[in-house]
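User: Watch each token:
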Amino acid sequence: MYIATLGPSGNNHELIAKRYLTRRGSGKGSVTLFTQFEDAFQALLAGQASHVLQCTAHPAHSDCVGRYMHRVFPVDTFIAGSKPLALIAQRAITQPTQVALQPATRYYTDLTEYIEIIEAPTTVAVAEGLLAGRYEAGICAAEVLEQAPNQLRLMQSLGPALDTWVMFATTPLPASSSLRLEADT
């Protein structure tokens, strides 16, 4: 099994793809990361990947379902937890006024006290910005605290997000699959 999914390395798409290979793919195969889902789906259509993994919360999900209809098919779906997330701030800033986030995480906690909300493409980018000192606060994987305990502090633990994930392939499931819920005829 060769899974194409969204990068960068260290994000939840990679985490869940590797978890999928271990639990449902006999641990064999590989994960290739792409900067855009369109490239991952093109790799699938070109035979360079056997599957594409996508979180349904990703803003590109509905566009990809429509764009690749009749050529790419959902073949598995499941619920999986992300890395534990947290609202993290620079230790030197008592009351941060800006917060960085990946748009899907916008409502994970109350952000009304922040004057400026900065959108980042991924939670990995938020973590990198916090570590570089570009952001006063941000929502990202809690594990970033371990990388800079003297620089960053925990403001609020958010835990893992439970998301619905879809695995795509170029061959549809048979009508008899238990994953299919067809209309009565």
